[in-house]
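Progress note, project year one: complex with NAP.
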Amino acid sequence: MEKIKMTTPLVEMDGDEMTRIIWQWIKDILITPYVDLKSEYYDLSLKNRDATDDKVTLDSAYATSKHGVAVKCATITPNAQRLTEYSLKKLYPSPNATIRAILDGTVFRSPIIVEGITPYIPNWKAPIVIARHAYGDLYKSVEARCEAGQVAKLVIEDTKTKKEAVIHNFTDTDGIVMAMHNTDKSIFAFARSCFNYALDKKLNIWFSTKDTISKTYDHRFKDIFADLYKKEYEAKFKTAGIWYEYTLIDDMVARVIRSDGGFIWACKNYDGDVMSDMVATAFGSLAMMTSVLVSPDGTFEYEAAHGTVTRHYYKYLLGETTSTNSCATIFAWSGALKKRGELDGLADLVKFAEAIEVATLDTIRAGVMTGDLVAMFKRDGVVVRKVDTKEFLEEIAKNLKF
Ligand code: NAP
Ligand code: MG
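Model obtained:
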């Protein structure tokens, strides 16, 4: 059989620990036997980030802007313990934060739904897509500790004007202070990607913040969404038979739990971080959540929503069998290959990417799965067989039809 050809390189961002092992196996077992893989490879392992003073992360993000589509493996965000473990020169920022700051845009996270796995919230029948703003707020904040007797102020100035506001007067106790920001440009881009995604997927969309308390900051988000919707999207939404609504985040949480799913929930950066893990877990497993960063200039970075699965990696290093779920990483690859195929007009690449997803779901549906899914799987007449990390990929390969 002749391998499927690619025309533009896919930006490949390799990562760390168990997901790095899975990464290579996915390529070896599910992709390179069938596709003449054209990728521009960046090694984002912590070791190589340290060796390149994190330049490799920046380079990979710029390559994504250039080529348009990237696939990223989970990476370690170093903390004090990793600093010693890897003898790092310094504490590097999270690669995801670095990449998102360069590409801007919105992260769309959507659960992978498969018959046999019932969500913890049984009324959730259709996916809830979390649209997470990928720039600013807590992730670009400036923090400081204050001592008793100090005053923390917010100062905004240019050459002619100066505005000052007291944040807190720490009269008799030490404390902490934080300042964060966002930009109208990024919020507009966030709103635009959300509305475009809703139109593309024909899904209703909710946006929620805490604007009753945050009367300037969160309110700005609410206003920008409302303005853009009114000016450019309301008519298009009507034609598509979908709608946009804003509500307070506390009200939204209640609505989400009572809903039957099938909508987009747009969240500010931190809310999206937390809520996507909550939604993924309730739908089954963190490993059953796809994630794609869509930038305002139309570039796409596909990744898994979970981390490097450290606990499994240490077992793997000891030679023990692991049963790590590779679904999210497989779907990152299939999503990226499909998008590359769509952009380059390669119908056979699109078809192949879709076939990988079908084969993955067919494998689980037939009762073959990794340990994390076993306890929650139930389908009449289907006997469950728990497989190890590599076997799972080999079983998918057997089901691959295209
Ligand atoms: P994690 O890697 O997501 O794993 C947490 C736990 O969730 C695992 O121990 C495992 O539970 C379960 N799990 C997650 N993914 C799984 C999978 N594919 N298959 C089966 N079980 C899975 O999160 P973490 O342990 O908090 O973080 C580990 C490292 O990942 C950290 O260094 C962190 O910086 C990094 N991280 C990276 C990203 C990213 O690159 N996008 C995101 C988050 C965290 P059991 O142990 O109970 O089996
Ligand atoms: Mg998170």
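The radius of gyration is 22 Å.
Residues 106 and 133 are 5 Å apart (CA to CA).
No further modelling is planned for this target in the current period.
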